[in-house]
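The following block was generated as part of the benchmark described in Methods. Ligand: coenzyme A.
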Amino acid sequence: MENISYSTIKEIEEIEILRNKSSFNYTYDQATIESLKKHFALKDSLYILAKSNENFVAFCSTDRGWWEDNYFFIREILVDPNFQKLGLGQELMKRCIDHAKKSGAIGIVTETAFENIPMQKLCAKFQFQEWANPQWKEGITYKLMF
Ligand SMILES: CC(C)(COP(=O)(O)OP(=O)(O)OC[C@H]1O[C@@H](n2cnc3c(N)ncnc32)[C@H](O)[C@@H]1OP(=O)(O)O)[C@@H](O)C(=O)NCCC(=O)NCCS
């Protein structure tokens, strides 16, 4: 897409750009920022920013903080409402999946709310399968095996 530039977060302080960013009923509050900072420190974490003319438009992160061995977890994905349905979410998700594959993972996991239809459709596009997660029943867990 035109005018969109992608970069990766290299320093933990840069995560602050995400504070209070929101989309639908989803907001990067203090707890989310703290969680992102904690998982940023893990080996092989990938935090991708998308900007248009230097302005924030989207973010996606993946890290190894999943409890099953050698999986990546897509922890966050958020596209600014003015930039949705343009393929950005798909592009960011693809980059995270490619990164997990290149890093030698056996699969990648993500979780979403039962009512989050856009995220469910996005996961279906990549052939994620619903997985009966013994540790989380409050939403849908998706797995994609490599
Ligand atoms: C989920 C989200 C990241 C998708 O981002 P996006 O850039 O709009 O998605 P894309 O344009 O790449 O769309 C990819 C696919 O997702 C699905 N999708 C995206 N938005 C959708 C919507 N509003 N309704 C239904 N399906 C949707 C479609 O299958 C779409 O493919 P298609 O265009 O060929 O139909 C975005 O809706 C978002 O930021 N939501 C709020 C934050 C959030 O819920 N994050 C996930 C928390 S688990």
